[in-house]
Design brief:
By secondary structure, the chain is α/β, with parallel strands linked by helices. The protein has helices at 15-19, 22-29, 66-77, 98-104, 122-128, 144-155, 166-170, 204-222, 242-253, and strands at residues 3-9, 33-39, 52-53, 63-64, 85-95, 109-114, 131-134, 189-190, 193-194. Strands 2-1-6-5-7 form a five-stranded parallel sheet, sandwiched between helices. A two-stranded antiparallel sheet has the order 3-4. The protein is elongated.
Length: 267
Amino acid sequence: MPIRFDVLTLFPEIFHGYLSQSILRHAIERGLVEVHLWNFRDWAKGKRKNVDDRPYGGGPGMVLMCEPIIAAVEAVQAKAQPPGHLVMLTPSGERLTQRLVQELAQHPRLLLLCGRYEGFDERIRILLQPQEISIGDYVCNGGEVPAMVIIDTVIRLVPGVLGKSESLVEESHAEPGLVEYPQYTRPRVFRGLAVPEVLLSGNHKQIAQWRRQQALLRSQQRHGSCSNSPAESPSASKGVSQHEEQCADRSDSHPRQNVFPSSHTTS
């Protein structure tokens, strides 16, 4: 049974190019994923099909109105069974993590509610009681790109979508806080940087150990959140290549700029 996404938005045309590319397109063609697009304006009244209005109390921007949004959600829910799990893309929602993606992937049908402008009238949230999700503390013009992130991350967990299921086990965040080990391909040496010898050894046990150690090391360096047992401590790892040490030195000499979250209207 395929997983079904119903995307409710003011700008369904944003998704046309996205749906025609890469893994998602192949998954749709093979019947593993369905994506249906719905325009809020189709449930708006009047000649102008207005879906937004000025906020009570004053202030900049416009707010999405209760009537067309709730009418759209209820109509789309009735178009198929089950009615689906409703997700509202909002900056005040729960932060999207791989754990949350795994939970979303358990639902056979997801309705993704994309905001715009100054967001939704609060009564929409109260009446529909959606799961509220944010993809991060930064500004998006609308909920369409966050909806694409939800689709992209969830379909990877649908059986048959990826070529090799092993990819899910070894990629970043398969374990909470753990990022993937570094990858290499040809040539063996590029601009003086050589592929670590252990990867050329053919010893699968040593390669697996090296990759695990590198994943732990990277996780600790980048997030500082990966708790390691003494047996898995990155400081005890062997086989760290010379050019990785050089890259670390370069990184230290060019520290990352701190980015602070800002308030935003739609995520």
